[in-house]
Amino acid sequence: MGTYTKIFLQFPPDQVFWNTSYQFFLYADPDERGYYPIFQSLDAEGFLPGSGIIFVTVVHSQSYVVEAQDDQITKEEVLTVLRRMFGAENVPEPIAFMYPKWSLERWAFGSYSDWPPGTSLEMHQNLRANVGRLYFAGEATSAEYFGFLHGAWFEGQAMGQKVADLVKKATETEEVHYEVLHGTTSEDEYNAANGWQASTFLTYGFE
Questions:
Q1: How many angstroms separate the CA atoms of 48 and 43, rounded?
Q2: Rounded distance, CA 192 to CA 82, Å?
Q3: Residue 117 to residue 134: CA distance in whole angstroms
Q4: Partners of 77 in the beta sheet?
Q5: pTM given for the model
Q6: Helix%, strand%, coil% for the chain, nearest 5
Q7: What is the mean pLDDT of residues 70-78?
Q8: Alpha carbon of 107 to those of 35, 58, 111: distances in Å?
Q9: In this predicted structure, what is the pLDDT of residue 206?
Q10: Taking CA atoms, which of 41, 85, 98, 200 is between 20 and 30 Å from 162?
Q11: pLDDT value at position 200?
């Protein structure tokens, strides 16, 4: 599992200190890479204008740090960065502050699936294969888009259709399951049976 943490702060709408015509603000810490680097404003047209909300994203090791520490410590660290960026005199105390701690959730232990190098389509297909009448769908079962929201969307559609067909007795097929795994993925395994629905950038060179 990978971890990707969004930390939200809400400031009084009449004390917004950033230019709301910009969506992103970047911070490069002089000592530590990935230390509260990307801020995004939600106080903008198309989002939540007038909300006074801004959030910062941290990933990988920084996510584990902030999710393990006390909220107050995280809030003070973020405010310190904002005051370096916009001036201490311009950044008031937030009226609301929150962030999820996905890595500590016992049912998740992370915010998205992250397959390590060397994972074959056969290994991935064994995760998404049904167990009897139990079928699985989610971003983790998407061979092409694991880790992304649209992976969950596509897999939900595919498995929903498969279950509907089973209910209507339109098909009796089950998901492929490999009893013996091979070390690499061969060209002919990039197919719908293994969750590979379309030719994408990852199949470049196989055509």
A1: 5
A2: 47
A3: 28
A4: none
A5: 0.74
A6: 35, 15, 50
A7: 97
A8: 27, 21, 11
A9: 54
A10: 200
A11: 54
